[in-house]
Fold:
Amino acid sequence: MKITEIRTAEVRGHGYSCYVRISTDRGITGMGECIHGGAGIQQIIAALGSLILGDDPMNVDRLYEKMRRARVFDGALAGNFVTALTGIEIALWDLVGRAVGLPVYALLGGKFRDRIRMYADCHAGGDDSPAANAAKAAEVVDLGFDAIKFDIDDLASPHKKDAYNHTVSRRELDDMVAKVEAVRTAIGPHVDLAMDLHGRYDASSGSRIAQALEPFDLMWLEEPVPPENVDAMREIKVSTRTPICAGENLYLRWGFKDLLEQQAVDIIMPDLPKCCGLSEGKKIANMAEVYYIPMAPHNVCGPLGTVASAHCCASVPNFLVLEWHWLERPHWHELVIADPPLIQEGAITLTDKPGLGVDLNMEAAEKYLKPGTRLFA
Ligand SMILES: [Mg+2]
Structure:
């Protein structure tokens, strides 16, 4: 079997996602999805894909390394090169699965679980008061989710002293505590609750926030500081009993190496359809397992990228929970042909269908296509 064509489509999602379709001389196709990856993602995928035209798609890891190493001098160590690779890699797994009649998790070594637990990323909308967030939390738990996440870094806070300084003000900290307290009270003690800071605070602020939130027994506090300085992340981690989670902006195994070796976090959150792909994601999870650190992947993808992440999550022992970021974007469900709906009672149940086991709804993809672009042209 030989790869004959690689085409892409940018479709509205959380921003836009890039879908990748790989065709072969046997008439078997595979489809993947990566997060948008920024301007020029389709051109980068076309350039990388041209390197594997005529190759046998069965050798997924080798093709991935072939493309990555060919572009290392252009920057394929991180960023949108790796994101583009990820879209191709996921499409290759789907293709191989369809060719041999096996689900992707089986190709990754089999599954530890059928049911992939999801957490819902929640926003109260325009009203960011503690009461509005508490009401949203209760509403989402009623949908069947037993794990939820909110943002508590309010860039528009009138209590920020400066737009660029990263120090949390007393009033900001009080507002954070009030919001978390209201949500925790609304959902009770047994629903897992995470809070995200998007790497927008300095090291001492990160510790103060983490310590102030200790009474609410968070599942994690996400990225208190930016991701570049592992020492600072570790300082925060050892300063608090609130678990610290980070990694959505790290790429490949090497991006997680120092974080794990220094045990600078309690949980890692690679974004699989952005930072690595499924095979590399499994290797990152396996590295984390050495340190008894669980993986809770970040995810803002549409249904294909989300299900692809779920296959990787099924294949590793230390999976904790996978993100779902589309509560306020109902067209997520339109983009996939799935009966019954993919997410039920806060989880995705993987089937034994070949490949990813789901198909992109082409009519919906056309409907939400990025203006000025064409569908798999
Ligand atoms: Mg985050």
In short: The domain at 3-103+361-367 is CATH 3.30.390.10 (Enolase-like; domain 1).
